[in-house]
Amino acid sequence: MWALRAAVRPRAWLSRVVRKCPALRAAPPLPPCPLRALAALGPGDLQGRGGGGRGPRADGRRSRAGAEEEEEEEPEDAEEEEEELLRSEPVLPAGAQRVCLVHPEVKWGPGKPQLTRAEWQVAEAEALVRTLDGWSVVETMVVPTKTPDRKLIFGKGTLEHLTERIRGLAGLTAVFLNVERMSTPTKKELEAAWGVRVFDRFTVVLHIFRCNARTREARLQVALAELPLLRSNLKNDVARLDGRGGGSRYIMGSGESFMQVQQRLLKEKEVKIRKALDRLRRKRQLLGRQRRRREFPVVSVVGYTNCGKTTLIRALTGDAAIQPRDQLFATLDVTAHAGSLPSRMTVIYMDTIGFLSQLPHSLIEAFSATLEDVAHSDLIVHVRDVSHPESELQKASVLSALRGLRLPAPLLDSVLEVHNKADLLPGYSPAGPRALAVSALLGLGLEELKAELEDAVLRATGRRVLTLRVRLAGPQLSWLHKEATVQQVDVVPEAGVADVTVIISGSAYGKFRKLFPE
Ligand SMILES: Nc1nc2c(ncn2[C@@H]2O[C@H](COP(=O)(O)OP(=O)(O)OP(=O)(O)O)[C@@H](O)[C@H]2O)c(=O)[nH]1
Ligand SMILES: [Mg+2]
User: What ranges does the record give for the region Disordered, renumbered to this chain (predicted)?
Assistant: First the structure.
């Protein structure tokens, strides 16, 4: 869920990212850079950075805004320094894993999750595992617990029974314990008891994010989210060294122990990452301002992960270079794509990162700034996978996350719901207003959706459809072509005039009246 500029990277850089993440499930090969540049223009950067200028301005004119605001100079070695910050070992092992999924079910008490059901949480955890290439769930165990906050999560008897079952599973290589975050001592004890590596949801989601992050901002955000893990690993390493009498020793002449040096290095790394992120964020904000000045209406497409946001944008824009994938968190970078509505009005669709219920907190914190752009859009489209058994719960998590973004009230009130994957539910029709059923995959219901989008965008942006009489000899007609969307021109030759139907913003209409006051 988050917005950022998809930078066009040199090919070598892309292949390095892919190589670093061998565990990602069969992601289709990245298209060559020029294609990617077309598919993933950054917010507002509609000329693309070296991307060949496929902007909504089909007339090939350059935007006015570009020169008006100075771009902040990036320090020369910024990119190199960022690459250095991003260099670290993957958090999960490479290669195939045979996983036992253990889901602690809290049946009662304050720890009982609201709204969710064990089967759904289990299905979601299984989907997370399946997202990683070569990983499979060989056994799923839903294990009751009254004490999820205790060090070992389960009561003594339950844990013994669980350990026996896990130890009895042939060929097991890891356990995915479906808790948000596990402390290092818990992890160590469980690994010792079960004889395989144990991961929590934070680690698994983080690894998926790491594999899917493409842009500098997304990669830096993952690196920031990774720091708590590095800190707890450090404690672990130091405890081990201490056992051998090494961890608390002073490094010769420095007056600092190994632990202190490592902590200082991590702190310095955090400061550098935050600084680099700030720099990229300021750039994004600048691009956003420029985009707003260009006055293309912006439609943010949000929704639960895997609901079909990217597929819908591909269908609405006809941009075949956009790559949807049957994978959780396929989209990690917010990208902008130009499309046109029935009246030929150009809108920018922002593809965003998907929501997940119980997304680990530090990941939310690391990525939340990229959702800033949603707050600046003119309309939000909430895509829902209505074929999903827990579609209502997914809707509730998305709405609660949207409320958390403190969006302007009119934007929140005007959310348009798109009920996607209707092809999987023959005869489906949405209940309630402001909702439309579509199949983004099969292209069903898209014309109705575009018409609805157009109405909603006109309402939200104060644009109007007007028919203006202009003199053919004067500059009005070409001015309108530049500053508004011309829908129709009816020439009245005997009078030397034309009736021009346009979609025009309030400010452009004001300018028109001032320039041509007859
Ligand atoms: N049957 C059916 N499948 C669809 C439809 N729309 C999308 N899908 C499939 O759903 C899967 C996810 O689609 P995406 O468009 O990548 O979903 P997303 O919401 O962008 O996912 P993330 O970026 O991971 O959050 C893909 O396998 C799509 O082919 C639809 O209308 N019908
Ligand atoms: Mg997507």
Answer: 44-86
- 398-419 pLDDT, tens digit per residue, is 888 888 777 888 898 889 999 9
Q: Which atom of ligand 1 lies at the shortest distance from residue 330's CA?
A: 24
User: Running DSSP on this structure, what letter comes out for residue 322?
Assistant: -
CATH architecture, range 11-74+287-459: 3-Layer(aba) Sandwich (3.40)
434-445 per-position pLDDT tens digit: 899 999 999 999
Give the end-to-end CA distance of the chain in Å, rounded to a whole number.
Answer: 49
E strand segments, 60-145: 97-106, 135-145
Among left, alpha and beta (phi > 0; psi -120 to 50; other), residue 50 is left
Q: Domain limits of the chain?
A: 11-74+287-459, 462-515
Classified by CATH at the fold level, domain 462-515 comes out as Alpha-Beta Plaits (3.30.70)
Q: What is the pTM of this model?
A: 0.71
Q: Which residues surround ligand 2, an ion (CB under 5 A)?
A: 309-310, 330-331
In terms of pLDDT, which residue wins out, 374 or 512? 512
Examine domains 11-74+287-459 and 462-515 and report if their fold is the same.
no
Q: How close is the Cα of 15 to the center of ligand 1, in Å?
A: 25
Interval 176-194: pLDDT, tens: 999 888 888 888 899 999 9
Residue by residue, DSSP assigns 5-42 as --PPPPHHHHHHHHHH-TTB--PPPPPPHHHHHHHTBP
Pocket test for ligand 1, best of 205, 306, 381, 425 (most atoms within 8 A of CB): 306
Q: Which residues pair with 399 in a beta bridge?
A: none
pLDDT higher than 50, residue 259 = yes
Residue 309 and residue 287: Cα distance in Å, rounded?
23
Q: Whose CA is nearest to atom 8 of ligand 1?
A: 308
